[in-house]
Amino acid sequence: MNGAESLVRTLVAGGVNVCFTNPGTSEMHFVAALDRVEGMRCVLGLFEGVVTGAADGYYRMKGTPASTLLHLGPGLANGLANLHNAKKARSGIVNIVGQHATYHIGLNAPLTSDIEGLARPMSEWVKTSPDAKSVSADGMEAIAAASSSPPQIATLILPADTAWNEADGIAEVPAEQQRAGYSPQAVEQAAKILHGDGEGTLLLMTGSALSEKGLALAERIAGKTGCTVMGPTFRPRMARGRGRYAIDRIPYVIEQALPILKDFKNIVLVEANDPVAFFAYPNKPSMLKPEGCEVHRMTAWGENSVAALEALQPNSRPTPSCGGPRSPRA
């Protein structure tokens, strides 16, 4: 078993069974291994941006990482724009990037580049495998990073000789990570804010809170407290469709966002960030929240927002004047 096959078998054992590819010469041993190993689905993309975008979308919809296969530094560079989007969406991805053989890198061939330097701005985990016997363990580290809480983009750089040389086998699959939790103190603080002034409070949610269950919980909280529930302008994914709680998002245009947010005294963040304008404009604010509005974080990315919303429910007080979820202020 060569290093490439040990890596593919490690990916499959670690639950990564789809690889979006745009390979070149340096990756041919990995491509051959993709054909030999059962359980791995290989999807060819004709441009690297398609490959990285597909891996991002795969994670957003399925919640588990896919892998990519990219050709050297230029191939990775072509895919960076959608890796930027994936990083903002907190998608877990395992990038496999081919590299010249270790003994060839120093010769400065035409496609030689600093692949680690290119990878770091869009990857939380970056590593170059030093030899074939290290590849499977490095691959399992990449899977662990991509599957962590919060998820990460992991980039493993695979020199050609580490792919074709003999390897020892596949790495041991680590124990399943403990499910993410949340801060009871942050939930209690959010409950006090909603109890004190629900109608002046915005519950700003994204991430796992925008699942079907999270939205249903938010609907009940809004119905009891009179708070407004919204999402940021862009979010990784949100449950939609008949019978589901529909919420508005903060408008992209500053002139539309400011009047909607102007009356809120408190914003409770559920995985979301402060509402910030996408760009700076002369004589316009960068922060969309009104002056004096206090921001309180209930959950951060990677925490269990659905469980936090469930814990928040018993503390939500009925409000006789509230007949249902409030719509954002005009």
Explain how this protein is built:
The protein is α/β, with parallel strands linked by helices. The protein has 2 domains: 162 residues, Thiamin diphosphate (ThDP)-binding fold, Pyr/PP domains (Rossmann fold, 3-Layer(aba) Sandwich), CATH 3.40.50; 132 residues, 3-Layer(aba) Sandwich (Rossmann fold), CATH 3.40.50. Helix content is 35%, strand content 16%. The chain has 12 helices and 11 strands. The strands form 2 sheets. It has a 6-stranded parallel sheet with strand order 2-1-3-4-6-5, with helices on both faces. Strand 1, helix 2 and strand 2 form a beta-alpha-beta unit. Helix 1 crosses helix 2, helix 9 packs across helix 12 and helix 10 packs parallel to helix 12. The chain is elongated and about 65 Å long. The N and C termini lie far apart (64 Å). The C terminus is likely disordered.
What is the element layout, followed by pairings?
Layout: H1 3-13, E1 18-22, H2 28-36, E2 41-44, H3 48-62, E3 66-70, H4 72-78, H5 80-88, E4 93-99, H6 115-119, E5 125-128, H7 135-146, E6 153-159, H8 160-164, H9 184-197, E7 201-205, H10 212-225, E8 228-231, E9 248-249, H11 254-261, E10 266-270, E11 294-299, H12 305-312
Parallel strand pairs: 1-2, 1-3, 3-4, 4-6, 5-6, 7-8, 7-10, 8-9, 10-11
Helix pairs in contact: 1-2, 1-7, 3-5, 9-12, 10-12
